[in-house]
Write the structure tokens for this entry.
Amino acid sequence: MNKGQAAACAVCGRKAGRNCPASGGVICNSCCGARRGTRIDCPPECTHFPFGTEAYDIWLRVDDTWSKKAFKYVIDKVGKEEFGRRAEEFTPSSTDWETAFIEGAEIELMNCLTSGIDDDNPSIGTLWEKEGWPGLNNDERYMSKYRCRSLPGIVEIQKILDDKAMECIDLLDGDRGRFIVFDRNTAGRAARFDKIVVWITHYPHFTRLACSGMRLPDTLAGSFLSEIRARTKKTRKIQSDEAVKRYLVEHFTEAFDLIAELGDILRDQMIASMDVDQCRAFYKLLAPRKEIEAILEEKPDFEIREDFEHEPDDPPDVSYYRWLRRGKAKAIEKKVRGLIQHGNEDEDGVGILGTVRLTDNELMVETRGRALFKFAGKLIRSYFKKRLSLVDKEIAPIERLLEEHADSGYEPEESSEKIPPEIEAQLLNRFYEKRYSDFLDVPVPMLNDMTPREASHTPAMRMKLIELIKIHLNGIDKMRVEKGLEVDINWIVDELGLDELK
Ligand SMILES: [Zn+2]
């Protein structure tokens, strides 16, 4: 149809100017609005079809008017007070109660539309549909049909396609495979392989996320899934991912709390397993100080510290030594694997085993971590034999040190010379490029100390390798979003032949 030429609407025959790819002719605005997607089979690329791929902002407008009408319909059915009471139950704990309550209301709305008042009654969404969607226009009816079939899930972002579109999977809906999610907010700040617990609405040509979701950190995903599956089995007596989704409909904010709880547990476990407790052993000198000093000077592991700062209770004749990972102390590497990681001595310097403090009548050894402490004790006995006798041991758990630190009101000083962000990005780029340059050929504990390249040739290691690379891709992508990092490690994916991560 030529521009400017008066043409007739394919439906009502009145003057019309809107191209209609479905009919190949033109259509008037009101016929298009009243029929698109329902009585007209609109192609996804039509810019007037809110549920096609080219009309993001029209969809937002429909979403806005639909939400208002949906709230009204549901509140009329449930009753204002009852709805408010239940919305409050769904309200996530937050300092900003008002915003949180709106989130709770949105969750309760989805709960009502999809799961109903109780098990004997159909969902309010089903009732609404049976009545023929009173109060809704054509676009809103189209939206409602799919909204009322929404369920929560765990979206994992596979790829960010542009400023609004992401390729995703649902960890609780494996059969569906990959689908395209439209969401400007999420696409703008998400990283590849981020996981979000969220309500999901699948439309024919794209998927949308509803209500606010919660990010599920990689480190918690496994324990979250097994706990939520266990809770589902206990309450619903069935075990399937579909049942987990139904469970989440009624316990959506409980999932938020669970993620927070699991995060706390993991942090405590990490602190407990870090082995960074401050350990001290106190020895009484049974030989003259000069003799002890002579041994300290003779061993290559000890280095006197000229620059030390006196502790308030230090006697005036005190000397401090660094206990370095040299000489016999180097054997520590074999015994305490992973605690000290150093490469070439000339390049990276040597690791530190601990500190030694010497006075006229006492020698004190301090280490970080119980494993090092035990090792240091053995070495002291072999070096000094009967010249020292152990008087006391003192182990301060890291939790206590952290608490004392917090109590002291200490706050790190903000650097007065802030690095400009573009310089920071440059430095980061250089750092990560270097870090990944030999990545393929360095053994990784998660791969049972195989290198990624070796693991890629070992079929049994494939799942672990994919898991590892996903963590790296996720981390790099987070740095891109937060710090403008531009490092691309897709060559690693190619080199390892992990096509499923493309
Ligand atoms: Zn018309």
Observations:
- Confidence is low (pLDDT under 50) at residues 337-348, 408-416.
